[in-house]
Amino acid sequence: MLAISFFSSTIAMASGAGCGVYDLAALAIDDPGAAGSILWHGIADPITNDWSNGNYGSASGRAGTEALMAVIGPKGLNRLGVVGKATSVWGS
Questions:
Q1: Dihedral sign, CA of 50, 51, 56, 58?
Q2: Is a pLDDT exceeding 80 seen at residue 32?
Q3: Cβ 13 vs Cβ 45: under 8 Å
Q4: Are 1 and 74 in contact (CB under 8 A)?
Q5: Rounded-to-integer distance, Cα 2 and Cα 68, Å
Q6: pLDDT exceeds 70 at position 24
Q7: What average pLDDT score do residues 17-24 get?
Q8: How far apart are CA 32 and CA 5, in angstroms?
Q9: Mean per-residue pLDDT, 19-42
Q10: How far apart are CA 73 and CA 66, in angstroms?
Q11: Other C-beta atoms lying within 10 Å of the C-beta of residue 19
């Protein structure tokens, strides 16, 4: 569920460039560099805008979430949730 949310929000941000999911997939095949640029700007621009507008907490939260998703991915977050549930049951 988290993965769907993450990717749909990234695609939604990228679609601000007039690019839907199908268009982005086609572009990734035809011109991977341009598709990567659209995805990069879809992720980085909201962080940059928040920082520029003085919303440092929001920018830091977005950047932290993006970094966490890049490092452990959505499967890792689901696993952390399962570990958290197991330790709360085990500890009680």
A1: positive
A2: yes
A3: yes
A4: no
A5: 12
A6: yes
A7: 71
A8: 23
A9: 85
A10: 9
A11: 19
